[in-house]
Amino acid sequence: MASGKNVAMTDRDYALVEDTRCEPDQNPIVACVSIHRLRAYYGSSDIIIGKPELIATNPTYRNRGFIRKLIFDMIHPESEARGDDMQIIPGIPHFYRQFGYEYAMANFMTSKVESIQSIPSLEDGKSEPYTLRKATVEDIPYLIRMSTRERVSPYTQVGLYYGPEYWKYTVGDIMDIPNPMQYGVRDTQIIIDSATGKDVGYSIVSTPFGMKVEAIVLDESVFINDALYPVLRQLIALEKKRLEAKKTLLQEAEAAKINTTSFPMLLQIHPKHPATALLGSKMVPLGTGPGFRLFSRINDYPQFILKVRKELEKRLAESPMAGVTGRLRLDFYRKVEGNKAKGLEVFLEQGKIVDAREWVHPGGDKLIEEYLAWKAEGKVPQVYNAAFAPLTFHQLLLGDRSLDELIWSYGETNIADETVKLLLNSLFPKGTQHIDTFHW
Q1: Can you name the residues that pair with 186 across neighbouring β-strands?
Q2: What is the reported pLDDT for 179?
Q3: How many whole angstroms separate alpha carbon 317 and alpha carbon 324?
Q4: Is residue 260 in a domain?
Q5: pLDDT tens-digit map of 189-199
Q6: Strands (DSSP E) found in 161-228
Q7: How confident is the model at residue 387, as a pLDDT?
Q8: Residues 415, 328 contacting (CB under 8 angstroms)
Q9: What distance in Å separates the CA atoms of residue 54 and residue 422, rounded to the nearest whole number?
Q10: If you write DSSP's letter for every residue of 212-236 in order, what string do you get?
Q11: Least C-beta-crowded within 10 Å: which of 17, 94, 140, 203?
């Protein structure tokens, strides 16, 4: 991570607490937090996500507020100063709520192929119509072209890109680090059409927690039902080789525990991916619920709204609220750590977002005065009012929950009328997310 070549962070993106009173033979580092930077998308809008990671405290130094100081005094300011639009954290349940985070992100559920023996074998006398070869730095331009949101995860509305930095690190720079396979927990294989020799896609397999297929991406010339089993058969063969190589590095007793003929194959692909339907009953979900959940923090709602307005305007244009003019006012009741404002005001003109600002509910008397002033000027705008408990607007904004789910979950959720509800549903529909959490 500190090589200076990592996809997610540089060798300077770590904040530490040191005990300068330590004896010479003791480790002076007693707490630490790194900050990652990830390319991401919000529908058709590009965003940057900061991700505090690898957070630790020496057990004897806990409960002194060191992580709080590192996050609030160093990590958050650094993330915001460099232009990150939001932050996410996977990790300890509930813990990060104290730093202004709220559960509002989740990767889709991991599934397991019930038995690798259930993958059909190649018929005798036949050759694979599609073959694999390991990706190299020469493939990076191709991999970048094949890594658009529409190809990798067209069914999601928020997620991470496999961008140039990702490919440069995972198929190139990591090989310059000693013992690369100790850290190189990703294997990218180019998919080749055997008949033409043409590159027609790629697969990504991660291995820190067993064999897990993270992506199968094909171009338009290939039907998934023709390529899926040839690709999976070869990925299984590669995993067998990896396990055989691993056995040679272990003591005999440990090596004996590794089964190279029968092992789990996990898939973390979207439920709507055609591979999911093709595998059908061969796939078994691991657990229940929405998948691996992450905390999120959006410190500056107005800035975020303006950053993603291209996507929000697209949603409006395709909705019954197309061409809407007025002000959307959201009251968050109070300011809390992790968010700058008590409320948000979004200015709409003919379906376009022309501005977004922090807003504080002024109280009933002030609202009457404001209305009378507008009326005197002959310019009374249409105002759409709603209220959300602090930080819960994250869940609507990021598509983690629907508006109806928030209304049922939080008594503070207050929607003025059906028109406001229609506007909010048009802007912020519920959707799914693609957060390849450990892609570093």
Answers
A1: 206
A2: 61
A3: 9
A4: yes
A5: 999 999 999 99
A6: 186-193, 199-206, 211-218
A7: 97
A8: no
A9: 41
A10: EEEEEEE-TTS-HHHHHHHHHHHHH
A11: 94
Which range marks the domain in which residue 374 is found? 299-427
Q: 101 and 116, same structural domain?
A: no
Residue 366 domain-assigned?
yes
Q: What angle do CA 6, 8, 11 make, to 5 degrees?
A: 55
Q: Is 210 left (phi over 0), alpha (psi -120 to 50) or beta?
A: left
Contacts 24+ apart (CB under 8 A), 237-246: 238/132, 238/187, 238/189, 238/205, 239/205, 239/207, 239/211, 239/263, 239/265, 242/207
Q: What is the C-alpha separation between 36 and 144, in angstroms, rounded?
A: 20
Instruction: Answer yes or no: do 286 and 307 share one domain.
Output: no
> 243: burial class by Cβ within 10 Å (0-12, 13-18, 19+)?
middle
Q: Residue with structure tokens 């990591």?
A: 174
Q: For 202-221, write each residue's pLDDT tens digit.
A: 999 988 777 889 899 999 99
- How does pLDDT run across 353-400, given as a tens digit for each residue? 999 999 999 888 888 898 888 989 888 899 999 999 999 999 999 999
- Tens of pLDDT along 127-167? 999 999 999 999 999 999 999 988 888 889 999 988 898 99
> Does the structure show a pLDDT above 80 at 126?
yes
Is there a domain that residue 233 lies in?
Answer: yes
Report the b/e string of 353-364 with b at 16+ CB within 10 A.
beebebbebeee
Query: How many structural domains compose the chain?
Result: 3
Determine the distance from the C-alpha atom of residue 274 to the mean position of all C-alpha atoms in its chain, rounded to a whole number.
Answer: 21
pTM attached to this predicted model = 0.91
Do residue 174 and residue 38 come from a single domain? Answer: no
Question: Is the domain of 172 the same as that of 252?
Answer: yes
Q: Over the Cα atoms of the chain, what is R_g?
A: 25
Nearest to 30 by CA among 69, 87, 72: 69
Amino acid at 388: F
